[in-house]
Amino acid sequence: MTATPAPHPARFLAILSLLWVGAPTPVMATTHPGQAELVREVARDTGKRPQALNALLDGATMQQSILDAISRPAEAKPWKDYRPIFLTDKRINDGIAFYREHRALLEQVGRQYGVAPQYIVAIVGVETSYGRNTGKYKVLDALVTLGLYYPPRAKFFREQLKELLEMPDNHLAGPLDTLTGSYAGAQGWGQFMPTSIRDFAVDADQDGRIDLQNSLPDIFASVANYFAKHGWVDGGPVAARAQPDAAARPITVKDATPQWPLEQLEAWGYAPLQSLPPAQPTSLQTLQGPNGPEYWFTFQNFYVITRYNRSPLYAMAVDQLAGAIAAGVGQVDAAR
Prior knowledge:
Pfam families: SLT_2 (PF13406). Helices cover 51% and strands 9% of the residues. The chain is an alpha+beta fold. Helix 6 (89-101) packs across helix 15 (312-335) and helix 7 (103-113) runs parallel beside helix 12 (216-229). The longest helix is centred in the last third of the chain and has 24 residues, at 312-335.
């Protein structure tokens, strides 16, 4: 048998080179759709190691219960059904006790930021029942589920997931993969989303960490700072009942932005039930109450509460809970 001559070394290397170029580039397997691109962005923006980011995301789980929860928010209820969720005797009485227990700190923060303390209390009351229920879901699971598996709001929640992955360790209450919160990925007593932690959370106790789960100074100051940065008017009105006449002009609004001077709404047939400055910028909300439509003038501070949660039902619940808490604290003080 005649031996086959060995190829020339240079030709052999050329063949290997062609084979290598033609081979497909290995692709790292990922657990979630869009994970590879997200990891590239975070690594590029922060210098964090892709391997560590992938390990975090690989450990997160898409949860159907989260997709189910976001499809039935409480804010879809009419006001007559929404109000009783938050304006209960227990929540009001617990808020009064909470205010009195933490009065010195609340009033110090209120003076610093120009936000009435009862509204700080009402926010943590509506959001987490004064810190008793901050959420059972892993924040990472929630934001992976909504950012990578929920097309209707994927843009918003992917931004929150990216911010969470980029967040410095001292802006979190603990290791990122152990944080728990709401089904939407909100954290702490005030239920801050990652971008809100970035933009508005405060290290009020100056311990080098923003802790919205365990530090009351950080919790109170962060809520107050959120309101202040969105334009809260110290001492300004929030909402006031309006009485339409028989010829009142129907008014539909897209959001709670004050659009008209109060006197314009009066000219359209809506009378205030209390004395208010006629030039006060206002809007009008129509809510379905237990006895039919309720009409409310709403002002800049109402709009600010809707920056926390865009539902006018939420803002009205916070305002009424805050009013009930302030009244209760006043009654206790008067009785002493």
